[in-house]
UniProtKB/TrEMBL annotation:
Residues covered by the NTP pyrophosphohydrolase MazG-like domain: 23-97
CDD domains (UniProt xref): NTP-PPase_BsYpjD (cd11531)
Name of protein: Pyrophosphatase
Species whose genome carries this gene: Filimonas zeae
Alphabetized PANTHER family for the sequence: NUCLEOTIDE PYROPHOSPHOHYDROLASE
One matching Pfam family: MazG
InterPro entries: MazG-like_dom, MazG-related_YpjD, YpjD/YvdC
Matches recorded under Gene3D superfamilies: MazG-like (1.10.287.1080)
Superkingdom of this protein's organism: Bacteria
Length: 108
């Protein structure tokens, strides 16, 4: 699935199953909640915190997909074409960071 296709599929789902989009600020809050859930799972999986019973059956991919879903919603609501935005972001990073990481002694 392409990013463009994902944006279209989320839009279709929202308009048929979800009835309508939550407003942008509500979706921003939901995005923060989903990032928090992803963070909680990452900390317990790769960090030093132990799992709580309620966290044990969560899946990393599912939590990432929840974050992506809400981001796709926000992109649709604000008229952002994420394919184009990501392409421009790559171009920006390729110019700005061409030698930055290679010259970072902390990474060697």
């Amino acid at each position: 699935m392409t990013i463009e296709n994902a944006q279209l599929r989320v839009d279709e789902w929202i308009k048929t199953v979800g009835v309508r989009y939550f407003n942008e600020l509500t979706n921003l809050g939901i995005l923060m909640e989903e990032v928090g859930e992803l963070s909680r799972l990452m900390v317990r999986t790769y960090g030093e915190q132990s799992f709580k019973a309620s966290d044990k059956y969560r899946e990393l991919g599912d939590e990432m997909a929840d974050v992506l879903w809400v981001l796709l919603c926000l992109a649709n609501q604000t008229g952002v074409n994420l394919t184009e935005a990501l392409q421009k972001n790559f171009e920006k990073k390729n110019i700005r960071d061409i030698d930055r990481h290679k010259n970072n002694e902390k990474l060697h």
